[in-house]
TrEMBL record:
GO CC field: dynein complex; microtubule
UniProt domain Dynein heavy chain coiled coil stalk: residue ranges: 13-255
Top-level taxon of origin: Eukaryota
Main location: cytoplasm
The keyword Lipid metabolism belongs to this UniProt entry's keyword annotation: no
Name the record gives this protein: Dynein heavy chain coiled coil stalk domain-containing protein
Entry keyword annotation includes Flavoprotein: no
Compartments where found: Cytoplasm, Cytoskeleton
Coiled coil spans: 163-232
Any one GO BP annotation for this protein: microtubule-based movement
Length: 256
């Protein structure tokens, strides 16, 4: 019964493993659609140098599309969108690092909603911004990538949650199965040991029976021998008596 229960659990968990992998594969497939765009955006940002950022920061009269781009960037960082604050952010030593390591998996819905004003602007296109600034163009690519990733993540989020729950449930069941398998192994070992002990005891019993039968056979032979010798003893006694009588008669006859 224990073995059958463990085998049933093994089959059930194997099925859950397949289902969990399917959820993970489905979620990954949806994210894979947006990953090329994201990687392209990060590559563009990665090529930026301090001089490119300084160029934007030092604009005395920044182009409108550069202002628009930096305003969108500031929304993603949840900061005031005016040019003064944008210039301040550009001057920070860790600005590019913050862009590259942006927490794209936790973009708030409120941020995405604010961003739509820029995304839907027909002029807010990479090729347009690039005409004004290399850094602005790279940051425009990045803003679009973050927006697309956030939209896809919204669709994928329930699947990620389902995957997380499935993985947790699967891990718990795998642990319980491992414990049940360990218990079953102990039971099997005990049964095997008992079987060996039984086989040994049966072997010993058979050996003792054979010895007993051999002894009984010897006893029977000895008994027959003793009984045979007893008969001979009686005859020997009779013969000795006869012989003594004959001897005495012979002596008497000789005296006469």
């Amino acid at each position: 019964a224990k073995k059958q229960a463990v085998e049933a659990d093994q089959a059930r968990i194997a099925k859950e493993e397949v289902e969990t992998k399917a959820i993970a594969s489905n979620a990954k497939a949806e994210l894979d659609v947006v990953m090329p765009m994201l990687n392209s955006a990060l590559a563009a940002v990665d090529k930026l140098e301090k001089g490119d950022i300084s160029e934007v920061k030092n604009f005395t009269k920044p182009p409108a599309l550069v202002v628009l781009t930096l305003s969108a960037v500031m929304i993603l960082f949840n900061k005031p969108t005016d040019w003064a604050n944008a210039k301040k952010a550009l001057g920070a030593a860790d600005f590019l690092s913050n862009v590259k390591n942006y927490d794209k998996d936790n973009i708030k819905d409120s941020v995405v909603r604010k961003l739509q004003k820029y995304i839907q602007d027909p002029d807010f296109k990479v090729e347009n911004v690039l005409r004004s600034s290399k850094a602005g163009g790279a940051l425009c690519v990045w803003v679009h990538a973050m927006n697309t990733y956030a939209e896809v993540s919204t669709t994928v989020a329930p699947k990620r949650a389902a995957l997380k729950a499935a993985e947790k449930s699967l891990a718990e069941k795998q642990k319980a199965l491992a414990e049940a398998e360990a218990e079953l192994a102990v039971v099997i070992a005990k049964v095997t040991a008992l079987g060996e002990k039984y086989d040994n005891s049966v072997g010993e019993k058979n050996r003792l029976r054979e010895e007993s039968e051999a002894l009984e056979s010897k006893l029977e032979r000895a008994d027959k021998l003793v009984k045979g010798l007893s008969g001979e003893y009686t005859r020997w006694q009779a013969s000795i008596g006869t012989f003594k009588g004959m001897t005495q008669n012979a002596i008497g006859d000789s005296l006469i």
